[in-house]
Amino acid sequence: MKLMAITAHPDDEAGAFGGALLHYHARGVETSVICLTPGQAATHRGPARSDEELAALRRAEFAASCRILHVDHGEVLDYPDGGLVRADLAAVVGDLTERIRTIRPHVILTMGPEGAVTGHLDHSMASLFATLAYHWAGRRDRFPEQLEAGLEPHRTQKLYYSTAAFTLPERPPVSPPPCSATLAIGPWVEGKIAAFQAHATQAPLWEAFARSMRRFGDKELYHLAAVSAPSVAEAESDLLEGVSV
Whole-prediction pTM value? Predict the structure, then answer.
């Protein structure tokens, strides 16, 4: 069984999906994370003196976080942080489609098109790119050059958006996807915190993140956005429910 998360920035893999990645690794699931940007436009920059230095630091932090989360395949692409809305749609979706066809996950996780609780534009765009790639990876009339190079179409069985049971009143309003799956991650909270803290450039956020996780973070909420076979949505506690090998 294989699970893939598609994110916008280094640290998203821990903050949004860390519990799921640890939970399913413990069940023997092969996990992967594809991050679209190296995070070079971050507010918190650590010792970096340039965008290039920050990108290098954050790539290393992403790799350290993935080791803590036991991710089998972690990759940071080179699209511009803060600029995904201007990125070439066909290029980004093509890159993601190629990785879906190569890795062949059974389930894909990404953020919702609202941009998660922060409403971050990169999060919104990552959601849209991932959603198109989810659908197009299974079609022979999308990126046929990949098929000519030896890949085969792949239909991932389920696509989930991360969601939340709250919004941030100090931020512009967002409309989060309704929760359809509640994943208990109590045993993995400390691992999720440790993975987030592998992002040393983001140290100013550590305390607030850890405090929030220890108080409210024993669950990750997801919205089932698409399935490979028509079905009626029902409340779930397992993202692999109904998935066949």
Answer: 0.97
